[in-house]
Amino acid sequence: MEHADCASYRFSVAPMMDYTDRHFRVLMRQITRHSLLYTEMVVAQALHHASQAAGAAQPGGRLERLIGFDPVEKPLALQLGGDDPRLLAEATRLAYDWGYDEVNLNVGCPSARVQKGRFGACLMADPPQVAACVAAMAAASPLPVTVKHRIGIDAQDSYPELVAFVDTVAAAGARRFSVHARKAWLDGLDPKQNRTIPPLRYPLVHQLKAERPHLTIELNGGLQTPDDCREHLERLDGTMVGRAVYDHPMRWVGVDRDFHGDTSRAAAAASQVVRGLIPYAEGWRARGERLWPLARHLVHVVQGVSGARQWRQCLTREAGDRQAGPEVLEAAARRLEQLGC
Questions:
Q1: Torsion, Cα of 211, 36, 192, 243 (10° steps)
Q2: For residue 7, is pLDDT > 60?
């Protein structure tokens, strides 16, 4: 499997636990061919244990369930969690062997569970350890190694501290920095609160790019619309959006044209998005898997039109049946056409 050149992307969909699974990524490929997609965070230690299991790489095996994907999902980055350079290097080699296009180290998640494993945002307090992890990952394969992080944590949120972190990690071989423009409070706020309560400080990310023009800097946090992204792309290399993509996927049907310069196809309608999933759903059901894990991601593809609520209710009822197959998606697409979507 070929590996894409992931030096820079103008738009990417942020990794989100319980959201950016293989099914949602295939859905997004009906909307954008060129944007970089991410897996949910996968813990390097879990990959190590899974790779030792018999039949791990077979469909339904432990390793395949953790990092398996359909080729249509590419370009695709594997986001890793961990602080052990040896395990992260092993995970990076697996990512290369499986055909991923880059590996990303999570230095931004503020959850208490992640902190107990000593990875995520708490690693910002230890730039040399992050650098050691990145260096081991970069040496393990030809894949680009990137880092997703906050502007700071707790009281360590000054611009000089941000620059010192980035400089240390860049020297170890990080190729792109995806910067969530909020700091993380590691004690007192849960992950949801950490996405909204700490104030957005976009000027710090702009300044970072201005003072480190040789680095690839991508902005994450608070971006709700393509216009929001376009405004920041005047100063930065890329933009990354998470919840606003998941909650409003059809809002982003123009990103290939607007951000990647591809005018070869018209923006997809909601009915086309749903119908485009049918070949993938056929393969998924042929494995003996249920349709609902795929269909659950479709509830937001139609919004703000008369009949949308009834459409969602019908899809949920039909796709929730254990025997439901791709015919449910075809019926759902026809109903969307009747709604003019």
A1: 120
A2: no
